Amino acid sequence: MAGRVGMVSLGCPKALVDSEQILARLQAEGYQLVSSYQEADAVIVNTCGFITPAVEESLQAIGEALDQNGKVIVTGCLGERPETILSRYPQVCSVTGSQDFAGVVEAVHRLLPPERSPHRRLLPSAPLTLTPRHYSYLKIAEGCNHTCSFCIIPKLRGLQVSRDAAELLGQAYRLVASGSRELLLIAQDSSAYGADLRHRPSQFQGRSVPADLVSLVDELSALGVWIRLHYVYPYPHVDRLVERMAEGKLLPYLDVPWQHASPKLLRAMRRPGSGRQLETIRRWRQICPEVTIRSTFIVGFPGETEEDFTQLLDFLQEAQLDRVGAFPYSEVAEADATAFPDQVPEERKQERYARLMALQQGISRAKLAAKVGRETEVLIDALPEAGVAVGRSQADAPDIDGSVRVRLSQPARVGDRLRVRISGASDYDLEGVSLSALPWPLGAGQLV
Ligand code: SF4
Q1: Which of 133, 313, 355, 423 could form a disulfide with 179 if both were Cys (CB 3.0 to 4.6 A apart)?
Q2: Which long-range contacts (CB under 8 A, 24 or more apart) does 239-243 make?
Q3: Ligand 1 contacts CB of residue 142 (under 6 A)
Q4: Cβ–ligand 1 contact at 153 (below 6 Å)
Q5: pLDDT over threshold 50, residue 83
Q6: Taking residues 31-37, what's their average pLDDT?
Q7: Best CA proximity match to 328, nearest among 305, 354, 307, 308
Q8: pLDDT tens across 313-341, in order?
Q9: 148 lines ligand 1 (CB under 6 A)
Q10: Is the CB of 189 within 6 Å of ligand 1?
Q11: Which atom number of ligand 1 is nearest to the Cα of residue 157?
Q12: What is the pLDDT of residue 290?
């Protein structure tokens, strides 16, 4: 055995997928993956550097790994700023930037020499995921071509590079064959998938599949599992995706990070495709009435007046979004907005954040209360006690949305799909009683 490696993975699902790739390479080389500092011969910390609190959290995680283990390899977004790390922790063994998987593996080799087995490379590499076995993130592109003024992701992760459709489909088929029942498609801007490839086709199972999101979704729908889209920007072609939702090919769930509703602030933020929000929402709901719309918003962006903020509240009241996340604006070193005039005092940001969340809490409560008495599909995530399961409806993405607590009337396993009658609702979660099991229609998923 080559050595035992631990991983601390911080940040968004995109960073989690990077951690999975690093660990899959190390596992294929014979390293053992362990889950505690004490068992590990070395620890990799995959950092986030998106906003100031995330930088601080990453630095604290590095400090903890140094205290608890001592041999620490740092990678990820904050690794693009080695001076920030090395000035506080000169003793870390190596610092590499995001996506530099080879650099991390080399750093591990230096600390823990690899096994020199001639047979090792003949072993098949199984998909490795850090999520529970029944759902997986599928990163369809890396990087971003936009220039949002509060964000440095394009500086950290570079311009968008999409993966060929055939490569993604191959990975999706393997994930379903190894137990995934929900695939969550992610990128910085999923709706721009394939633009950098000029939508070039690639060959999959004798078919030519273009690198565009609609074609990819059409192919993935043959797998018979839940397909969920994250980080979609409201471009016109999104209507065709909403049509797929109405046809049942894709979960009726749209995660659209609008960030604000004031045209003045959207211009200052340089957000792509954000105009005519209410009109767009109405059109999507016409195409697919059951669509769940999730969005995130920044409050207290530089220059935000009380009038701008009221515009945002009015929009939320009118739009009745199903899920809303909000963040008080936080400075990011090197982002253009950091130098903007009219920064909003911290107290006012917090006060606006509380007002927004109170409004949305009422909307969410009423929306969930309206579901009581209805039937819904639930994917089981956990079985916390006898006769009880906790899962998610199609309207709930893992980690960010609510859950459904289900009283079971038949045996169930994690990853099962149940028909559930909703019997109660709180501000963000539901409860219900299972009616029947819904076998997965694993069409092409069984062919692997
Ligand atoms: S779309 Fe904007 S916020 Fe999102 S990664 Fe790209 S630049 Fe950053």
Answers
A1: 133
A2: 239/283, 239/284, 239/287, 240/214, 241/191, 241/213, 241/214, 241/217, 242/284, 242/287, 242/288, 242/291, 243/287, 243/288
A3: no
A4: yes
A5: yes
A6: 91
A7: 354
A8: 999 999 999 999 999 999 888 899 999 99
A9: yes
A10: yes
A11: 5
A12: 96
